[in-house]
Specification:
heterodimer, A: alpha/beta, Rossmann fold, 4-stranded antiparallel sheet, B: mainly alpha, MetI-like fold, 8 helices, about 0% strand
Amino acid sequence: MSAEAIVRIENLRKRFGANEVLRGIDLQVKRGEVIAIIGKSGSGKSTLLRCINGLETFDEGALGVDGQALRHGDAAAMRALRQRVGMVFQSFNLFPHLSVGRNIMLAPSLVKKRNAAEAQAQAKRLLSRVGLAEKFEAFPDQLSGGQQQRVAIARALAMEPAVLLCDEITSALDPELVGEVLRVVESLADEGMTLLMVTHEMNFARKVADRVVFMHAGRIHEIGPPEALFAAPQTPELRQFLSALHG
Amino acid sequence: MVDFSLWDILRNLLLAARWTVALSLTAFVGGGLVGLALLIVRIAGVKGARQGVALYVQLFQGTPLLMQLFLAYFGLALLGADVPAWVAAALALTLYTSAYLTEIWRGCVEAIPRGQWEASSSLALALGEQLRHVILPQALRLAVPPTVGFAVQVVKGTALASVIGFIELTKAGTMITNATFRPFTVYACVAMMYFALCFPLSAWSRSLERSLRRVR
């Protein structure tokens, strides 16, 4: 239990009706750490990620980010927590009625009360960082999936989060567009951003993650550095999961 | 016996048509405001609002507008409020319109993908900010054609206000018929005037639908 843990999850439990999807999750993530969450669909990995910024409620346990406890039903606490946690979705979820620039500027202007000039300068900075400097005026439907996802990353970064959650962010992309998005994520990892990502890109997880979490049946089944987990899986479930990927 | 020219008939109908327009506008603006308020309390998840609004909608959608007009006119009189026909008609039509509009708009809001709510929530936007900047602008685009389409129903619905003695287009038509004994001519003129009011609305709704599909 190090003091530097930026995400603290203690005995997290969640049920959908009779189905218990999270059965007591304990996880501490250090500042700057990159965590890859892998596992079969239905293992609870996306639910776990979505609990961290309050998109899902949980039934038992405690969760905190950067010293801010997650308290459902407390609008002010949720707003404070969500300013510390950014999220990028599988389906991008850009706002289709706003230009790329406005997509990025919206939340900082409203929530952080940033003035228009500042917000615009920041949006341009972020866009060039994800390699889309010339797309400020474009609309989301004029961009490829890979470009949309990079805008979504820039939009999340505009709130200057302490932690970034990535929920299968390359799963909806054509194979040739996956690389450009992963390169952006990798550069974030290199710059010391704390990342939790649910991913099916095992090579990427192996290369970028500090720790890999293997989820199975609502529990953290195995956890450790990627070399150990991928080279020497300890449990039959992980062995089976990995061999199914290569098979 | 006085002789009525066609122009006399038309002139008197046109004068009465002003009241049809005024009643339609009142019902639509009032109904729109009440409908929007009901929509927002329903979205905000105010305790009991969902069931309350659903009951309200069912009540107004499940009874004839004619009965609603009678109840507003005679019911308010029973309560001791001496309301003119104009007020009773405006009140009944406003409530009727609000029930339909809030339901139409709820459908439009629900058509916005959940991801839009989730993305704006995860960016720490409060409910009001989400509605104003993310959800309602997109829902509005969906809502325009059915809303304008419903406006046509409201214009035609005002004809029923004639039964409580409010002198709008239909009531004026009846009165003129009684004086001229030319029901076919008079009611043909009345129908043409409703058509002249409603057709532009329908045409506008269709063209909006087309242009909104094209434009982002």
